[in-house]
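User: I'm new to structure prediction. If I give you an amino acid sequence, what do you actually give back? Let's try with this one:
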Amino acid sequence: MERVRTLDKTHQPGRDRYRASGVWCAAWILTLLALLPGRITAQAVLGKLLDNESGQPVATAQVVLADSSGNVVGRALSDSAGRFFIAVELGTYSLVVNRLSYKPEHVTDIEITNTSVMAIQIRLSPDAVQIPGLLVQGERRVRSLGANGFYDRKQRGFGHFIEVAELRRLQAVRPSELVRRLPGVVTRNGEVRSTRGAFRADGPENCLLQIVVDGVYRGANLDDVLTVEEIEAIEVYTGSSNVPPRWQGLAGLGYLNISGGTTPTCGVVLVWTKR
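Assistant: Good question. You get back a string of structure tokens that encode the predicted 3D arrangement of the chain. For your 275 residues, that looks like this:
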């Protein structure tokens, strides 16, 4: 004997949310049985899963069958036509269907008697899946710095680089205070000098670094040309050999001081402002 059960979506608080609603199409049962390997000689639960909105089959849904004590007695995955099959012994069972993007469905009081095949059709309700937000972390990049080659030069690592986060941490009052902590750098009254020096007959002398703001030469005194609040990033090159090609000529040009003489220069300080 073959029994057919069609389940609808009627909800009854405190009871099974499904109820029998009529006789299911016998042709479907015959088709399903024909597709199963071999002949069914024991009791079984046959099922078909459909999307409740579109009526289309739901594939790869997990079906779990449990006995009256809650022990799992069978599992199955629905195929491309939404069909599943679980062989069981005599008894009363409950069934749970789970599928990503669908609400879980529960069927209770499935009674399997001698020589019976229970055929069940279950409609699954779509359920929006909430994906946890992703935290993307990466280096903060300023478009103007990228356009002027700052990040490319930083990656090559020939100079010293200070960006806005470090600028805030230093809490400097004057721009020269931002660079005086760098290796090989000393400051004097707003001027930035390299301790690598240029040797003279009477001993070594710290050479000046030329100041360039947003690509424009601004002399040799960093504190005279801008404030800390205006700065986005700083690059410091303490020797003419590692100065970017664009500014190498400027690095060794020398600086005309107020006494009319020339002070040796051997590097550059590139300052980029918050434009």
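You can read the tokens as a compact description of the fold. Here is one thing that stands out. Helices lie at 26-35, 143-147, 150-156, 164-170, 176-179, 248-251.
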